[in-house]
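pinned: reference chain
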Amino acid sequence: MLGNLVRVVFALTAIAPLSISVAYVFAVKGQNLRWAFIAFCFCLLLGALALWIVGNASARLERLPITIKKAKSADKEVIGFFVAYALPLLFKGEVSADLGAWGLAAALLLFVLWTTHALQVNPVLGMFGFHFYEVETADGITFLLITRRKINNALSITHVVQLSEYGILEAKKS
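pinned: its structure tokens
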């Protein structure tokens, strides 16, 4: 399983595209290209981290056998992220580079991520061909499964690595 810090960083990678909206707002509405560049670079860094974490987890974590009883797509949850990504574009007035406000918002987000065991759909991974499924095992436990395949047969997934308490990644064939 991923450690708490890596799990939180992985969760933060899901909000990477928000940085593109923020960069646009800083550049166009705030005329602050330095902050726009920083926000854009932050997006690229988080995207690269998402791929690195998934690659490392798949290669290094223990492969576990699994029997999936049923699976349903969780890709539809990406729409909620889109709304969050678009919100900065809808702000009225001037953009503020108030580090205190951004720091407080970041601290609150980190607190929520640190204290929950949730693993959510990650649109950044979706851009790289990953799919997300809510799966139920033969034992009746529900997980969020991340895989590169479109699942037509739930029984075709036989091994996973466990990313978090309720998040799993299809393991590469050995």
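why pinned: The chain is about 50% helix and 20% strand. The first strand starts at residue 64 and ends at 65.
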